[in-house]
Design brief:
It contains seven helices and 15 strands. The chain is α/β, with parallel strands linked by helices. The protein has two domains: 141 residues, Rossmann fold (3-Layer(aba) Sandwich); 93 residues, OB fold (Dihydrolipoamide Acetyltransferase, E2P) (Beta Barrel), CATH 2.40.50. The strands form four sheets. A five-stranded parallel β-sheet has the order 2-1-3-4-5. The two termini are 26 Å apart. About 14% of the residues have low confidence.
Length: 273
């Protein structure tokens, strides 16, 4: 069963050695090639095809961000995961469509999550399959059903698999698949994650409604956008309709009831997930 072929690029030998070691141990990885500069990495990329590139950012000469922009112009670009000691390029990484942004030192669990997102990016390439028990290139376990949010891989408001939010002095990259519901908050929206965490994002609710509609999210109220996969109950009492999303009971406005029920029926129908 074929798995990912990886090019790891870092000008610091200890970091490159550690990353290579972790990649070699991952069940998602079949082949690891290394390069000690972005220029060397580009030469290798022109000579052979890789599924994903793990890339440091700050390197002498051509840096990692510049290389990522070059790769974006390839006819079949590899997925890019940045591996860096610096937090201050996260938004820029988001803008160039990176599949992940890992801070050094990298641990195996975070690395595998980034590789799984890279696999989702390569869903149109059927030769890439998951290792046994891992998420496959089609975004699902092989032979298993998929839910609607995972059908195209978790995609954020600009077509990426993450949503960048500011949190104090940091910028966090949140997987869309971890968001259960969204609440309007004036000029912002508040993203509510399944683990109970929440973050403010300066994006109009209407924008998220439009761009996340085919990713398993549905507008139920002027103030709420919810993940279909996280609705556990819908209840109607007279003219009042509510849904349960996790531990939250959210009101469904009258104008959204019909669309919500229609989306839920299509979501639950075999083949509609």
């Amino acid at each position: 069963m074929s798995v990912l072929s990886i090019l790891a690029v870092d000008d610091e030998a200890p970091s490159l050695d550690e990353l290579s070691y972790l990649l070699a141990r991952s069940p998602l990885v079949g082949r690891v090639t290394v390069a000690s500069s972005a220029t060397e990495g580009l030469r290798r990329l022109k000579a052979e095809q890789f599924d994903a590139v793990l890339l440091d950012i700050r390197m002498p000469g051509l840096d990692g961000m510049e290389l990522a922009r070059v790769l974006a112009r390839f006819a079949s670009p590899p997925a890019v995961v940045f591996v860096t000691a610096h937090e201050d390029h996260a938004v820029e990484a988001f803008e160039v469509g990176a599949a992940g942004y890992l801070l050094k030192p990298v641990d195996a669990q975070r690395l595998d999550r980034a590789l799984q997102r890279a696999v989702a990016r390569l869903a149109d390439r059927p030769e890439i399959a998951s290792a046994s028990g891992a998420t496959g290139a089609n975004g699902a376990r092989e032979g298993g059903a998929r839910d609607e949010p995972a059908r195209h891989g978790p995609l954020g408001p600009d077509g990426h698999d993450v949503v960048a939010v500011d949190s104090g002095a940091r910028t966090l990259l949140l997987a869309l698949s971890d968001i259960a519901w969204v609440e309007s908050a004036g000029d912002y929206v508040r993203l509510h994650l399944r683990d109970g965490a929440n973050y403010l994002l300066r994006t109009p609710m209407a924008t998220l409604e439009e761009q996340w509609a085919d990713r398993g999210f549905v507008r139920i109220h002027r103030g709420f956008l919810v993940s279909l996969a996280d609705i556990t109950e819908i209840r109607t009492d007279g003219a009042h309709t509510t849904v349960h999303v996790g531990s939250q009971e959210l009101t469904v406005s009258r104008r959204h009831v019909h669309d919500l029920r229609d989306r839920l029926v299509r979501y639950a129908r075999p083949g509609g997930r």
